[in-house]
Predict the 3D structure of the following.
Amino acid sequence: MKNERSISAFTRARAVIAGGVNSPVRAFKAVGGSPIFFKSGSGAYLRDLNDREYLDFVLSWGPLIVGHAHPAVVKAIASAAQRGSSFGAPTEAESELAEIIVGMMPSIERIRFVSSGTEATMSAIRLARGFTRRPKIVKFAGCYHGHADPFLIAAGSGALTAGVPSSPGVTEGTARDTVVVPFNDADAVARAFDAHPDAIAAVVVEPYAGNMGLVPPRPGYLAQLRAACDRHGALLVFDEAMTGFRVARGGAQALADVRPDLTTLGKAIGGGLPVGAFGGRADVMAYLAPDGPVYQAGTLSGNPLAMAAGIATLKLVRDDATLYERLGVLTQLLTDGLEAVFEKHGIAHQTARAGSMFGVFFAPEPVHDLTGAMRADTKLFAAFFHAMLDRGIYLAPSQFETGFVSSAHTTADIERTLAAADAALAEARTVGPQSNQPPSPR
Ligand code: KE4
């Protein structure tokens, strides 16, 4: 059997690791089958325990914008490791990475590094609540901001009243302070502010939603969120953990020309090592300990090896004048080609693209929010996923995720992917009727 080493590795893992994985989406539950275990990556490719190669469009869920094991990134990490792995004290590498980010994302006047996107968003809303002295936040159905309690909330029965926990262990008390409204509906945000006057500290949004599949903002939507926050004295928080440096050199805020009060980052800024960050207006960030009263801390925040990987990665991104044009061309070649293949096979589909991010829904109508995303045919997606996997193409193992292209991908890689999709869809068409499994909280 071709994946027998991964299957036995999964059995071994399940004996000691909860669910056999350290993050649920890796377990292939959304697509079925046993997860592939990998042993190495190079450029646009991954290699599994059976030495099979896969063209990788997951790229560790976004961080690897320059591909796996880029020589400059490997060299920077190795060099930093020679000097020690962690000091728990300030280093100049933290200032160097901060200066690069601030230089590329001018809305960030001050930044704080943490070790994950979850830490970044969790800390950003505590800061927003401390700064505004207001308890509530607004988030959007289908947007994911990590697994901190205030975000594991689904829309309540009354769309504008308190949310409900979307995971056991999250309390009603926590849910009370999170209002969940539909993405891409500015009127819903206006109603939320009217329903909770002077109580909303922040509106937290993925400017391009990437965790219900890829769902771009409607034209003008982000500017409407900005105006609503200004009108009601709330902070606008862009969670750019995924879109940052991915959809454009300056992130989604540059594309939309909308200046958030706070931005959360992750993934690409660590080049594959654990780095998150939050930052924004200097007057807001001044509220953060040790200068201000809002507490936040982390043993490995600003870790020297992670900073080295982030500096090497962002320098490659910042200094490559044609990178975003090349990524855009490759990503459009992929999505245009997939549309042609889906048309050929008579399959209802919606594709989306933003910079080097792309998404595919096997859905009948354009997708603008979670309700639309949930109309996608997850059974057909699962069959397509496996048919592509069998052909050495590694897509995200869930209909409700986003794909990524790196600077290591080539036109030949895209052409190979399209040929595989054509063959895969011929095979996948044998799948049963449509089914709607709502996206898991993660
Ligand atoms: P982490 O805590 O996983 O580093 O980041 C949380 C997070 C925050 N904000 C956005 C917009 C995110 O997409 C994420 C994490 N993304 C998922 C994949 N869509 C990570 C993969 C996983 O959960 O294993």
The first helix runs from residue 4 to 14. The chain has 14 helices and 16 strands. Residues 4-69+321-428 form a domain with the Aspartate Aminotransferase, domain 1 fold (CATH 3.90.1150.10).
